[in-house]
Every structure is written in structure tokens, then in C-alpha cells.
Specification:
Elements lengths: L1 H17 L8 H65 L5 E6 L5 E6 L2 H8 L13 E8 L3 E8 L1 H36 L1 H16 L14 H33 L1 H16 L4 H32 L8 E4 H11 L1 H7 L2 E6 L4 E4 L1 H17 L6 E9 L2 E8 L31 H11 L3 E7 L3 E9 L6
Parallel strand pairs: 6-8
Antiparallel strand pairs: 1-2, 1-4, 3-4, 5-7, 8-9, 9-11, 10-11
Helix pairs in contact: 2-4, 6-8, 7-8, 8-12, 9-11, 11-12
Length: 469
């Protein structure tokens, strides 16, 4: 008990630690950070565009206002000289301004300003513009009589207030944008990564419990993460089926190997305990070899069935002539059928090209034909046909043998199952299981129609090879 508690402690500690500081390095945290950065950058870019457009609009309006004021002062100067200019400036109730009159050598002839700030602005009119750190000032210059130049600097107090409001509004927008970015990042990353989180949780539970029956909850969406979840569940189902098949196979092998292994032991003991006759020892050793071959054949066939059912069987597929494969299998069993007194009739359509592993389909044909001949009595008949049905090449093997009871039809594909009429025949009980597994691994199907005492008909459908020429 103490060792168990000691082993579990580090895992709990490491799990707690993984939820601590390292959580900031998780995918969700990085996505949330990038979302915040992109959102804030978008807000700032929008604010910058708005600010530039507002500044351009204010400068355009200020320039128009300054040009209008300058035109009034020019008219006053042209009509009444500097006295009229001073009088107009004193009577003006508009915004604060500074006016400066110079000759052709830019020597100052007259200057007037409304206050100290305007006076400082007037001192910069000699260069023709106000420094950019005072955007509320607008400058206009025009030529007047006697080669003189009249300049004006007008202060736009509304622009100053508007700029202050813009700065305050930009700060508020920044704070609101930051809050919305953090909230949106939290909600979006949590929702978007929910399938990944469920996937990681299911994987952790499977690793810790070893229960391959667990599945990740699937959602109705069809995005890439949902597809990943569905594929993960399909992979779990295949792994579960493979493990279950392996366990069943081990159970079957453990059960059915007792008899041949017992025979091996008995034969070896007889050979050792006998009086030393060479003939008896040779017979015993021949039995040992026969039973050894039987065990090896059983193990090889069981492995092939499990691989095929789990989708792990390697298939070297090429376009093959199904009639030729069937013909070669029939040649192998020609003497067997003759000795059993069974008549074999063939109807093999030419050029039935299937996409298949020739060696595996040869096994399928041999097993089905062997099964038909084995359970057909003397003077019986086995009919082998090859034809095309839609997109499939069909191998049909019909016999007039003992047949199979209706209640056993669904079980004939089970490993090591032997119906009552076949129990007297020597065999592994794996042939039909191998046939079904290999055919389905090729993307085909196999069906059986049988009547007890009248015979059976096997029909195997395999996909035709597509002619790409």
C-alpha cells in the first residue's frame, strides 16, 4: 500500500505543476496573447487613421479660416494702410491672431498681435510657418502692393479643444479595446480549443486507465478540429477492435492448441518409452512433425486474420485476372476432387480484372474451393463461376454438399467455429474467417447461402481494376 501511494504522489504533483506557471506557455495562452496583440494593433491602427484624417481636416479648415482672415486684412491695408489694418485688428472679435507686414527684403514694417501667445507666434512668421508643436495655429501669407508681404497666424481654439478630446477619447478607446481583447481572447480560445482540450483529456484518461472504450465527445460542427476528433475516435475504435481481436485470438489459440500440443507430447513419450523399434519411432516423430505443422499453420492463419480485420494487413495490389487465379486454384484441387468423386464445373468469364493482392486472393479461392470439395459427397457437384456484376468481379462457388443449418449461417465466419456437419472433417476452423477478413481488407464482400442437406453457395465480390488509359 505504501508503495502505491508513493507512486501516485509524483504524478499528482506534476499534474498540479503543469497547471501552474507552465500554463502560460500553453497553446491557449499563446493564442490569447496573439489575439490581444492583433486586436490592440487593429484598434491603434484605426485610431491612427482617424487621427490623421481628423488632423488633415482640421488643418484644411484652419487654412481656409486663416486665408479668409488674411484677405480681410489685405483689403484693409490696401484701402487705408497700416492705420486701417490696426483699426480692423482692434475691432475684430474673432480668434487670437498675429499680423506682420514686411518689405521685399523681409524687413519688418508693421506687426500687431492680440496677446502674448499671439506675439510669440508673430515672431515665427518670419520663417513663414508656426512650429508643429502648436497645431492649433494656422499661417497664411499673401503679396500686397509695393512688393510687400502680409502674413497672419490665427489660433483655432476649437481645434485645441478637439485635440484634447481626441487624446482623451483615444485613451478610453485603448482601455476599452484592451478589455474587449482580453475578454474576446479568453472566450474565443476557450471555445476554439475545446476539442483539443477534450482530446487531451480523453488521451490522458485512456493512458491512465487503459480503457480503450473511452471516446472524445464529438460536436455538430464540421471544422478541422471536429474532423480531428472524429478521426481520433475512429482510431480508438480500430485499436480497441484490434486489441479485442488479439485477446480473443489468444483465448482461441490457448484453447485449441491443447489438443495438438498434447498429441506432440504423447507422440514424443511413446517414441522414448518404446522398445526401440525404428519404425514405431519414425511414425511417432512423423506425427510430431504433422502436429507441429498444424500448430504453425494455425498461428499463421490467426495472425493473418487479426491483421486483416484490424486494417494492418499489407496488400500488394495490382490488376489481376480473377478467372486465372480461380483456374490456378482449381488445378491444385483437381486430384483431390477426382479422388473424392466430386465433379467440378467451371464458368470463368475472361478479362475480369480486379485490383487485388494475387497471393491473398489465391488463398481465398483455394479456401473456398477446398471447403466446397471437402463437404461434398461422392457423385456430388461443385460449380465455380467468375463474372462481372456492376463495379465488382464476382467469384461464385456452389456445391451440393452437406450444407449449413440456418441458425449457424451467421457464425460460420467466426474463428474456430465448426458447424455440426463439419466436425468430423479434419481442419483448423479458420478458413472462412480468413476468407472474410482478406476479402473485406480488399474493399469487397462475401456472402453465403446454404441449406442443410442441399449445399452451399459462396459469392465473393472484389472491386474491379479501373482502366486509366
Amino acid at each position: 500500500m505504501s508503495s502505491a501511494s508513493t507512486d501516485s504522489a509524483p504524478s499528482e504533483a506534476s499534474r498540479t505543476e503543469s497547471k501552474g506557471p507552465r500554463a502560460w506557455g500553453s497553446l491557449s495562452a499563446r493564442l490569447a496573447l496573439w489575439y490581444v496583440i492583433v486586436t490592440l494593433a487593429s484598434f491603434l491602427a484605426a485610431a491612427a487613421v482617424f487621427t490623421v484624417r481628423a488632423q488633415t481636416s482640421l488643418e484644411r479648415e484652419g487654412a481656409r479660416s486663416a486665408a479668409g482672415a488674411l484677405e480681410r486684412y489685405r483689403q484693409a491695408l490696401e484701402s487705408g494702410g497700416t492705420t486701417a489694418l490696426q483699426s480692423l485688428f482692434d475691432c475684430s472679435s474673432g480668434p487670437r491672431a498675429a499680423v506682420r507686414l514686411t518689405d521685399e527684403r523681409d524687413v519688418e514694417l508693421f506687426v500687431v498681435s492680440s496677446d502674448e501667445a499671439s506675439h510669440r507666434a508673430a515672431s515665427t512668421l518670419q520663417s513663414g510657418e508656426v512650429p508643429r508643436r502648436s497645431p492649433e495655429w494656422h499661417v497664411a501669407v499673401t503679396a500686397v502692393s509695393q512688393n510687400r508681404k502680409l502674413s497672419i497666424a490665427v489660433r483655432d481654439e476649437h481645434a485645441e479643444a478637439l485635440w484634447r478630446e481626441l487624446r482623451e477619447t483615444s485613451f478610453i478607446i485603448f482601455l476599452v479595446g484592451l478589455g474587449l481583447a482580453i475578454l474576446g481572447a479568453t472566450l474565443i480560445t476557450r471555445r476554439a480549443l475545446r476539442p483539443v482540450t477534450d482530446l487531451a483529456q480523453a488521451t490522458r484518461e485512456i493512458v491512465e486507465s487503459g480503457d480503450l472504450g473511452l471516446r472524445v465527445q464529438t460536436r455538430t460542427t464540421t471544422d478541422e478540429l471536429s474532423q480531428l476528433t472524429q478521426l481520433f475516435n475512429r482510431m480508438l475504435a480500430k485499436n480497441e477492435a484490434l486489441v479485442r481481436a488479439m485477446r480473443e485470438s489468444l483465448d482461441y489459440v490457448a484453447h485449441d492448441l491443447r489438443t495438438p500440443l498434447t498429441r506432440l507430447r504423447t507422440g514424443a513419450e511413446l517414441a522414448l518409452q518404446g522398445p526401440g523399434g525404428g519404425e514405431k519411432e519414425r511414425e511417432a516423430l512423423a506425427d510430431v512433425i504433422e502436429e507441429s505443422d498444424r500448430v504453425l499453420a494455425m498461428l499463421t492463419t490467426m495472425t493473418d486474420i487479426v491483421e486483416a480485420e484490424a486494417g494492418a494487413m499489407r496488400l500488394d495490389k495490382h490488376p489481376e485476372d480473377l478467372a486465372q487465379i480461380a483456374r490456378e486454384a482449381l488445378e491444385l484441387y483437381e486430384l483431390v476432387a477426382k479422388d473424392a468423386g466430386v465433379t467440378v464445373v467451371t464458368h470463368l468469364a475472361p478479362d475480369v480484372k480486379i485490383l487485388a493482392d494475387r497471393r491473398r486472393i489465391s488463398q481465398v479461392c483455394a479456401n473456398v474451393i477446398d471447403n466446397a470439395i471437402k463437404y461434398t459427397a461422392a457423385t456430388g457437384r461443385v460449380e465455380v463461376s467468375v463474372l462481372v456484376a456492376g463495379e465488382y468481379g464476382v467469384l461464385r462457388v456452389a456445391d451440393t454438399g452437406v450444407g449449413i443449418a440456418r441458425e449457424d449461417l451467421s457464425r460460420v465466419w467466426e474463428r474456430l467455429f465448426r458447424a455440426d456437419p463439419s466436425r468430423g472433417e479434419r481442419g483448423l476452423g479458420l478458413g472462412l474467417s480468413l476468407v472474410k477478413a482478406v476479402v473485406e481488407a480488399h474493399g469487397g464482400s462475401v456472402t453465403l447461402d446454404s441449406t442443410l442437406g442441399k449445399g452451399s453457395t459462396f459469392e465473393i465480390r472484389l472491386p474491379l481494376a479501373i482502366d486509366l488509359k
